[in-house]
């Protein structure tokens, strides 16, 4: 089943055509890679699918529903989460607090749900919800093996763990679809190998993953299917072996990577 798709999505900035008539599809339950040279329009396509940017033309559908132009917050609540090319953590909050913020972002929890509670009732409910959100955050930290760092400030984490923490925070919103923008950027080979295993475990939870990545070993190893952008256009779609052997892709991107 197609979980998310764009139809002829175009985004121009003044005279620059960042994304040109791209019809992209993410199948439910799969890991889809989005690759291409710098400036090809990958992040712009992500921004247009997650409500951070508005297409100049074309549509975005999630579970068959037109979500074009919906706000980022609304799209998050529908079950779509993302990380950013440049890490965006709350550096002065603890590791646990960063994940808890993710959870609150999803629920936008208002303590008394519009009902009038007594001060004591309100306090008890708030306390219960806090404990629940805390417990859920700890579950995600355990998933990433980050629980030893639970009370560290995010800024003190090693770089690879900061990247994982960003993913943990995105997962705390309980998405069905997760977008990762260059999750392995800046990671050493050991961290990248661990990330690869983690992304597979995320897929095994039933979460659909779409990832932008330049590390071809990672992309070719874990993606079920790959879409290629070049100068804003979708020049190829296929399995890793189809993409590796595609002359257009080799010319535009893969050939240059190997130099
Ligand atoms: N907010 C913006 N304003 C103007 N130009 C932009 C903006 N965002 C992206 N672009 C341009 O769109 C093109 C695609 O950029 P981007 O989507 O970041 O590429 P990628 O993620 O594939 O490296 C580039 O030419 C970039 O300069
Ligand atoms: Mg980018």
Compact overview of the structure:
The protein is an alpha/beta fold and 259 residues long.
Structure write-up:
This protein has helices at 42-49, 72-78, 95-107, 119-143, 159-171, 189-204, 216-222, 240-244, 247-258, and strands at residues 2-13, 16-22, 25-27, 31-35, 57-62, 65-66, 80-82, 177-181, 208-212, 225-230, 233-238. It folds into 2 domains: 1-79 and 175-259, P-loop containing nucleotide triphosphate hydrolases (Rossmann fold, 3-Layer(aba) Sandwich), CATH 3.40.50; 91-174. The chain has a 6-stranded mixed sheet, sandwiched between helices. Strands 1, 2, 3, 5 and 6 form a 5-stranded antiparallel sheet that branches. α3 (95-107) packs across α4 and α3 (95-107) runs parallel beside α5 (159-171). The chain has 259 residues and is an alpha/beta fold. Helices cover 41% and strands 23% of the residues. The longest helix has 25 residues, at 119-143. Bound molecules: adenosine-5'-diphosphate (ADP) and magnesium ion (MG). Adenosine-5'-diphosphate binds next to β2 and α1.
Number of domains: 2
Question: Largest beta sheet: what is the strand line-up?
Answer: 7-8-9-4-10-11
Helicity range = 40-55%
Q: Name the structural class.
A: alpha/beta
Oligomer: single chain
Average pLDDT metric: 92
Bound molecules: adenosine-5'-diphosphate, magnesium ion
Low-confidence stretches: none
What fraction of the residues are assigned to beta strands by DSSP? 15-25%
User: Which shape, going by the Cα principal axes?
Assistant: globular
* N-to-C order of helices and strands: EEEEHEEHEHHHEHEHEEHH
Rg measurement, Å: 19 Å
Looking at this structure, what is the CATH superfamily of the largest domain? P-loop containing nucleotide triphosphate hydrolases
